[in-house]
Amino acid sequence: MKNWLISTFLTLTLLGVSAIANGQNQSIQEDVQRLTIEVENFLKEQSQGLKDPYVIEVKPIDPRLKLTPCSDLKSFLPAGAKVWGKVTVGLRCSAPKGWVIYVAAQVRVYAEYFVSKNPLNAGQTLSEEDLLKIRGEISNQPMGTITDKQQAIGKTMLATHPAGVTLRHDLFKSVPVILQGQSIKVISQGPGFRVSNDAIAIQQAIEGQLIRAKTLSGQFVSGIARSGGFIEVQ
């Protein structure tokens, strides 16, 4: 009888420990899921200005992470990070205990862009016959990829360019309308609203080129460069 009681006690104890462990693991897993959702929502907010379809993939977060539950969680992009393609998103907890982690993700954007239909020569002025329209993932293309044929027609090539290769704004002889470090306006507009914010250009751009800027609040935005020192976010 005594042995049976001891055996029963040990069994119940082990079951209790197992239940606690499973509960802890479930709690950790729920935290990881919450962090994943936070990153995905943040990237959706950053992609609001896109008119083209996009897909967000957040890389799995190590479920073994034992992070203090956070009541003040904020997402951010590291300095110089991009919003499209392979990206890294930071998660910063301020309370009750501070910690920071970085999560890998990928934002695939699908749109139309242009490549050279024929080999191009330095000094050649482009016509519509020199362009070939492609529809595919534009987020893995170089910055400044041509997305409107009017951005290339009539432009002069700076150097030779092979056939079938993406056309970019920096391949042409052009005068930038926005310079790197310049104070600019970010115009966000949509049905029934138009908002203007001050920002600093991260790069130089010509008319119609996609450009990134940093607002005074520290947020990174992408938009189309326009003459007059502003970028347009649809």
TrEMBL record:
Q: Origin, by domain of life?
A: Bacteria
As given in the record, the signal peptide range reads 1-23
Q: What Pfam families does its record include?
A: ChapFlgA (PF13144), ChapFlgA_N (PF17656)
Q: Per the database record, which ranges form the FlgA N-terminal domain? A: 38-109
Under Gene3D superfamilies, the record lists:
2.30.30.760, Antifreeze-like/N-acetylneuraminic acid synthase C-terminal domain
Q: Which residues form a coiled coil?
A: none
Stretches that traverse the bilayer: none
User: Which compartments is it annotated to reside in?
Assistant: Periplasm
- InterPro entries to which the protein is assigned, alphabetical: Flagellar_FlgA (IPR039246), FlgA_N (IPR041231), SAF_FlgA (IPR017585)
Record keyword Signal present: yes
One biological process term in Gene Ontology: bacterial-type flagellum assembly
What keywords tag this UniProt record? Bacterial flagellum biogenesis, Cell projection, Cilium, Flagellum, Periplasm, Signal
List the record's Gene Ontology CC terms alphabetically: periplasmic space
Q: Does the keyword Signal apply?
A: yes
In what residue span(s) does the Flagella basal body P-ring formation protein FlgA SAF domain sit?
Answer: 112-233
Please describe what this protein does: Involved in the assembly process of the P-ring formation. It may associate with FlgF on the rod constituting a structure essential for the P-ring assembly or may act as a modulator protein for the P-ring assembly.
Family of this protein: Belongs to the FlgA family.
Protein name as catalogued = Flagella basal body P-ring formation protein FlgA
- Source organism (scientific name): Undibacterium fentianense
